[in-house]
Amino acid sequence: MLQGFAFSTIDKKLNVVFIDIKQESLKGIISDLASVNWICINNVDCLSITQQQVLFDLYNRNKITNAKLIIAVSSLTNELNLLKGLKICLSLAVSFTLEVLNDEQKNYYY
User: Which candidate, 33, 91, 94, 97, has a CA 20 to 30 Å from the CA of 80?
Assistant: First the structure.
């Protein structure tokens, strides 16, 4: 779903960076945020301690720019094993939870 959002921003001629933690590292990927409109990071729950620090630094640097940061995790922020500072930052952000629909709900919505 996050990757689909990233593709839709490209269609709107916006600059987006999509990072899947399971496939690549945060370190060194984003050096200049001045031209980036959206930063999408998938599988944040898979971050190593070093990557968590990089994300925390990115979060703090991102306050200076106009880039929007969207992250995806497999559970609620307070349930994740993250560095305290990063967990606090992420818990202060707006969050949405996607629920798996049962068959009855699927039939109702589709």
Answer: 33
